[in-house]
Backbone:
């Protein structure tokens, strides 16, 4: 039996990695010459992070090679990086190529879109380009968006429905429950006046239970989404969650997007791709106007959850915005403020407005898609929100 050759020593591997990071200019100082697969990998990195030009070359070690400013050459480069790097790295490199090298216009080319690795950030870019997109590209763009949306739904839908169904069951209290349906926490709190210290027990004069059998609409949910450019990933996730919530018979769900104008996309909630292509990322922000619209749609305040997803940079009337939030809270609405609904954490946001909303009992925080079902469950049950620890 032949023993396979040993891999490179740890020191050689470190030199190789430093050479890949620093580029051809560091070849002499790194003391390492690239060979084999490392050469085209270095070329792909050079095209993006080398001379700041647009990708065009397919290999080599000249850091001034750059990417050629045409869809075919960029598509080849996208194919290269998908060959040499894992998907997570490809997505970062695509994002950097769009941000650093101004390649947004090339995403309007069908062959370019066919070469990309779909992810949430790419969807955000495509949605922002929607109005400029030629008809020849729209079908391909929708296919890219559809793939990302379907992947998100597979990841999030089942857990969201299960979590919220449990919360809705627990929030529908009944006064004569069977033993298995008794909500012991609420029952004990409701009967604390009947505490007998000599026996160390509470006499449950009134039982409170979960209303599990009733499948009528129990809660109204309004998702109010800031569609300014910085909120792109949040818009994508919120659209998917909106479609999931709308599929639950015990909820009525309304989805509202806004910049300086307000658009109600509720009638498109059966397909989050339609919702996304109904948004227009970019522009200013008028949160006050959006909340005024949402407020006008509330008919059952005590059974309504309003989720504002925004970085809170208000271009409208600040004091009126806060007054509307306070009025909704006072009427019994559960008001939730999310600075972001994405995996990246909180973006830049208006800290003064966040503090003011927090003082009203609507703390503003960034929420990951995995945490969102728990946040909604807490709001439905009217218990403290599971705010993540950011310290």
Residues:
């Amino acid at each position: 039996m032949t023993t396979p050759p040993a891999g490179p020593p740890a020191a050689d591997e470190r030199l190789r990695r430093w050479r890949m990071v620093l580029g051809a200019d560091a070849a002499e100082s790194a003391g390492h010459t690239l060979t084999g697969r490392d050469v085209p990998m270095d070329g792909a990195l050079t095209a993006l992070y080398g001379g700041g030009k647009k990708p065009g070359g397919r290999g080599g070690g000249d850091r001034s090679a750059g990417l050629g400013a045409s869809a075919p050459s960029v598509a080849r480069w996208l194919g290269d990086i998908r060959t040499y790097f894992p998907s997570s790295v490809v997505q970062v490199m695509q994002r950097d190529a769009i941000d650093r090298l101004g390649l947004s216009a090339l995403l309007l080319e069908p062959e370019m879109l066919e070469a990309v690795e779909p992810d949430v950030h790419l969807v955000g870019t495509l949605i922002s380009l929607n109005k400029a997109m030629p008809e020849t590209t729209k079908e391909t763009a929708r296919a890219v968006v559809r793939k990302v949306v379907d992947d998100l739904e597979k990841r999030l839908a089942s857990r969201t429905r299960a979590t919220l169904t449990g919360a809705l069951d627990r929030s529908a209290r009944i006064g004569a429950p069977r033993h298995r349906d008794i909500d012991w926490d609420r029952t004990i709190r409701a009967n604390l006046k009947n505490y007998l210290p000599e026996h160390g027990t509470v006499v449950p004069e009134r039982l409170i239970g979960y209303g599990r059998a009733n499948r009528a609409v129990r809660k109204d949910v309004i998702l109010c989404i800031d569609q300014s450019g910085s909120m792109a990933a949040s818009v994508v996730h919120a659209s998917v969650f909106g479609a999931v919530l709308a599929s639950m018979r015990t909820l009525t769900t309304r989805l509202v997007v806004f910049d300086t104008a307000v658009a109600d996309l509720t009638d498109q909630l059966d397909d989050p791709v339609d919702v996304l292509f109904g948004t227009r990322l970019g522009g200013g922000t008028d949160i006050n106007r959006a909340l005024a619209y949402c407020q006008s749609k509330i008919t059952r305040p005590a059974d309504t959850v309003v989720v504002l997803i925004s970085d809170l940079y208000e271009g409208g009337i600040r004091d009126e915005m806060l007054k509307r939030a306070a009025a909704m809270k006072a009427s019994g609405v559960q008001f939730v403020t999310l600075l972001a609904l994405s995996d990246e954490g909180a973006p830049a946001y208006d800290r003064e407005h966040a503090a003011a909303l927090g003082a009203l009992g609507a703390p503003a925080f960034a929420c990951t898609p995995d945490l969102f079902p728990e946040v909604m469950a807490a709001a439905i049950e009217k218990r403290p929100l599971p705010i993540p620890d950011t310290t």
Observations:
- Confidence is low (pLDDT under 50) at residues 1-7, 56-66.
